[in-house]
C-alpha cells in the first residue's frame, strides 16, 4: 500500500517501513506523529484520490532523527568589479520512518 502525503509544502509518495527526509517538524526523536494531509492512497489498481484530501486517511510516522542537510554554497560574482561573496546554508531536516498507512 502507498500514500501520497503533503508536509512542509512538498509531496511525498510513501510506503510502510520507508525512511524519508522532510522539512523540519517540531517533534522529539522517538515520538510518533500522525499526518492527516493524505492526497492519495491505494494499492495496485485500487486507488483513492482526494479532493483535495482523502477523508479518514492518515499516515503514522516515527521521528528517527533531527539533522541538517548537506551544505549548499551560494557564490555571487560581478566580473571586473572586484565583487565576490560566498555564503553557505544547511537546511534543517527531520527523518521519518513510515509505520502505518490507514485508508
Please give a structural write-up.
The protein is mostly beta strands. It has one domain. It is about 0% helix and about 65% strand. A four-stranded antiparallel sheet has the order 2-1-5-6, with no helix packed on it. The protein is elongated and about 60 Å long.
Summarize the structure.
Helices cover 0% and strands 65% of the residues. It is mostly beta strands. The mean pLDDT is 95.
Task: Summarize this structure as a short list of keywords or feature phrases.
elongated, 65% strand, mainly beta
Mean pLDDT comes to 95
Strand content: over 45%
Which stretches are poorly predicted, pLDDT < 50 over at least 5 residues? none
Order of helices and strands: EEEEEEEEEE
Strand order of the largest sheet: 2-1-5-6
How helical, in percent, are the residues? under 10%
What composes the largest sheet? 4 strands, antiparallel
CA radius of gyration: 19 Å
End-to-end C-alpha gap? 9 Å
- Number of beta-strand segments: 10
What general form does the structure show? elongated
Q: What number of domains?
A: 1
Query: What class would the helix/strand composition place it in?
Result: mainly beta
DSSP helical segment count: 0
Topology:
Layout: E1 2-7, E2 10-15, E3 19-23, E4 32-35, E5 38-43, E6 46-49, E7 58-68, E8 72-78, E9 83-89, E10 92-102
Antiparallel strand pairs: 1-2, 1-5, 3-10, 4-7, 5-6, 7-10, 8-9
Amino acid at each position: 500500500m502507498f500514500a501520497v502525503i503533503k508536509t512542509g509544502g512538498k509531496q511525498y509518495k510513501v510506503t510502510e517501513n520507508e525512511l524519508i527526509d522532510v522539512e523540519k517538524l517540531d517533534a522529539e526523536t522517538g515520538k510518533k506523529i500522525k499526518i492527516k494531509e493524505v492526497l492519495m492512497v491505494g494499492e495496485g489498481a485500487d486507488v483513492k484520490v482526494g479532493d483535495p484530501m482523502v477523508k479518514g486517511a492518515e499516515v503514522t510516522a516515527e521521528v528517527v532523527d533531527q539533522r541538517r542537510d548537506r551544505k549548499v554554497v551560494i557564490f555571487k560574482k560581478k566580473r571586473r568589479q572586484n565583487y565576490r561573496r560566498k555564503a553557505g546554508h544547511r537546511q534543517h531536516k527531520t527523518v521519518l520512518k513510515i509505520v502505518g498507512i490507514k485508508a
